[in-house]
């Protein structure tokens, strides 16, 4: 039988953590035949709640779950982990300046980067979920120089899945028949949900989404703003931010990264830019990628029209500003 994989979830006592850890323990993230050992990290004020989650994991008697480490010690949390899902962070509170939130998260991600670099398993794959996700991932990368940049990513798969969902609702087709939407850029409201390469499986073969929707005003307007603003709409409705969809998308992200994307399908991941599509190198930017043998590759050669170009640049500009703000917090 397979050796267990150690999966770290930081912020495990929080909302997303509560939805995510049972998914991992059931094999949703790494496969139904893959044993796991869960490492759950949170901070001392959440220690009691974290222990409650650990009790529930024991109570659920998950056959794949071979062990649980619940801790507030960063080193213990990071030791030997093969996959790290970084959900913990400092939330923006009323009246706080953007710079103050950034500064808190920069110091958290700097410290956790060092712990991962020193104590995680070689070739550990890192997914940053906590906001500002792209910039937290960039800080993590900068302060864990021995972790290959290919191993550090941030979550935009939720936005990607939201885009698939909107197209499926609009066309009244199965969401599993829609593919190859793209989220470009930041996991923020400047992200660009792009359907120019998306298709739908129909009885008459694969058809472009643009042709089937046949309403450019909707695709260039309401569709984009709905996906961009979906997080805010969930908060308004639930009085809490997205949790089950975020957890499920985090599982999709890691599963596809580790086990590969289906032939002919690409997904969106926030990864370190190499300058593809004239996106400035050195940002963590969401691109269309395919995955094989545990590695992602940016899909090359997609046509970018003038309208899209502006949107790709706008979200890159925001990320450059965030990067500068993060660096100003370091000094
Ligand atoms: P939450 O507030 O319920 O949970 C966050 C947890 O992190 C808390 O238990 C807190 O104690 C813990 N924490 C704080 N500092 C920590 C540290 N230094 N080390 C370890 N744990 C720490 O928040 P929720 O709803 O679970 O969201 C978590 C994060 O995910 C937020 O930053 C949120 O904005 C982000 N998010 C990102 C999405 C994405 O698509 N990238 C989607 C939805 C949320």
From TrEMBL:
Q: Indicate which residues the UniProt annotation says bind NAD(+).
A: 11-17, 42, 105, 129-131
Q: Which residues constitute the catalytic centre?
A: 187
What would be an example GO MF term here?
L-malate dehydrogenase (NAD+) activity
The Lactate/malate dehydrogenase C-terminal domain extends over: 156-324
Positions annotated to bind substrate: 92, 98, 131, 162
Keywords on this record?
NAD, Oxidoreductase, Tricarboxylic acid cycle
Asked if the keyword Oxidoreductase belongs to this entry, the reply reads: yes
Give every Lactate/malate dehydrogenase N-terminal domain span. 6-152
- EC number(s) on record? 1.1.1.37
Q: Name one GO biological process term.
A: tricarboxylic acid cycle
Spell out the CDD domains in the cross-references: MDH_cytoplasmic_cytosolic
Quickly give the catalysed reaction: (S)-malate + NAD(+) = oxaloacetate + NADH + H(+)
Q: One Pfam family name from the record? A: Ldh_1_N
Q: Hey, which family's this protein in?
A: Belongs to the LDH/MDH superfamily. MDH type 2 family.
**Could you identify this protein by its name?**
Malate dehydrogenase
Q: Which organism is it from?
A: Cannabis sativa (Hemp)
């Amino acid at each position: 039988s397979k050796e267990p994989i150690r999966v770290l979830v930081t912020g495990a006592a929080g909302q997303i953590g509560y939805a995510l850890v049972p998914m991992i323990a059931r094999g949703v993230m790494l496969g139904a035949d893959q044993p796991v050992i869960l490492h759950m990290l949170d901070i001392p004020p959440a220690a009691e709640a974290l222990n409650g989650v650990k009790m529930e994991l024991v109570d659920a008697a998950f056959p794949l779950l071979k062990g649980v480490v619940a801790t507030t010690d960063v080193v213990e949390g990071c030791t030997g982990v093969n996959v790290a899902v970084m959900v913990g962070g400092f939330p923006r509170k009323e009246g706080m300046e953007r710079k103050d939130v950034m500064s808190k998260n920069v110091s958290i991600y700097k410290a956790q980067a060092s712990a991962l670099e020193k104590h995680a398993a070689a070739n550990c794959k890192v997914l940053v979920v906590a906001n500002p996700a792209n910039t937290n991932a960039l800080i993590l990368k900068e302060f864990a120089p021995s972790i290959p940049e290919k191993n550090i990513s941030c979550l935009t798969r939720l936005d990607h899945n939201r885009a698939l969902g909107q197209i499926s609702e609009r066309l009244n087709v199965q969401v599993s028949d829609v593919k190859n939407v793209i989220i470009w850029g930041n996991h923020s409201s400047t992200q660009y949900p792009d359907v120019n390469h998306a298709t739908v499986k129909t009885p008459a073969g694969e058809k472009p989404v643009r042709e089937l929707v046949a309403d450019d005003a909707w695709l260039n307007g309401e569709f984009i703003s709905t996906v961009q603003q979906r997080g805010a709409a969930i908060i308004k409705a639930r009085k809490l931010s997205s949790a089950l969809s975020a957890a499920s998308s985090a599982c999709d992200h890691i599963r596809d990264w580790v086990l590969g994307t289906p032939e002919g399908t690409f997904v969106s991941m926030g990864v370190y830019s190499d300058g593809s599509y004239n996106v400035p190198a050195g940002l963590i930017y969401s691109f269309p990628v395919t995955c094989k043998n545990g590695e992602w590759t940016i899909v090359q050669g997609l046509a970018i029209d003038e309208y899209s170009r502006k949107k790709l640049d706008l979200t890159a500009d925001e990320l450059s500003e965030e990067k500068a703000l993060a660096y100003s917090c370091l000094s």
